[in-house]
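Intended use. Records like the one below are meant for learning the mapping from a protein sequence to its folded structure. Do not use them to infer anything beyond what is encoded.
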Amino acid sequence: MPQSVNPASLSAQTVLAAKIDFLAEDRLWIAERIQEVLESGQLTLGKYGAAFEERFAALCGTKHGIAVNSGTAALEILLRTLAIEGKEVLVPANTNYATVAAVVRAGGCPVLMDTDPGSLGTAPEEVERRITPHTVGVVVVHIGGIVSGRMREIQKLTERHGLWLVEDAAHAHGSSFGGVSAGAFGIAGAFSFYPTKVMTSAEGGMIVTNDERLAQEARIYRDQGKMSFTQNLHIRLGYNWRLSEPHAIIGLRHLERLPEMIRGRQRIAAIYDAALASWEALMPVKVPSQGVSNYYKYLVIPRHPCDRQALKATLRERFGVSLSGEVYEIPIHKQPIFERYASYALPVSEDLCRRHLCLPVFSGMTEAQAHQVIEALRATLS
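Structure written out for the chain above:
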């Protein structure tokens, strides 16, 4: 049960929505190695980038990791290697701009799927509903770090229809279901290391795959389509999607600390779970029984109508508690640039994007701060 906190005293404390955690020893380790690469002059595609790729692929249980300069780039490179030009690709309506933009930039046509209320991801029934003779593949998104308990069903469904499966695992570093890591269910996975993520390289992304051809093509695309780093012979319409050595060094250090950081987030999530188990106001989005979540977000759905912006303002101004940003505030078909891809209703996506909340959770967050969040919510929603 939550510790008793006097609501009148909460405003004297502050709970941030999120926080990047680099310990003093991390900063020293990173600085020493950046000095090394500055002295060497090899600032990109060097030994630290290669080590980052190898160790991140090992985390995911895949043969290959290809480091790039963003999660957005990871997705577009993947889709270019899969030759989607003029073809349909199924993507969730509850996702980030990058997921759909990558399809469009690679020449494909995004077909939007509605949201599964249980996971905020995609249900296999919705995948089946949207398949047409023009469909070549499916992109799933592990919202908030939760891998859907129905991933095996989606995997088998795509195999049955002869479709490839790509995972937008931007939220899911270290998450898994049934012993399979995020990024290893389909032909490939794409991760982001943007500063808000569970681990970061400041900016950056990673492709993971077991497919030899795809890995080789991805390496060509990320370096402006060149046949190799040492040959100025361009064989694909690539781009400068390389990850620098300083970024790889930062990523390597955070990757080393990832298990510890996830355990810290899981401790906070357990406090929230215990408090909300007997409280009707908020319903947590549950991690499946065979799943492991990194708790990039701790997602809850209010059971009753709630003015989200007013609630967030009250928590922040009266109690010093900042709720984390939504994932996502509005579904992708409500973004002006993508409105033309929504020729049918996507009611679950609209409803859940409008209503869900994300409770604060970050590496280094204390149990006292978690109890403060719960008490502030009780005082506000009572």
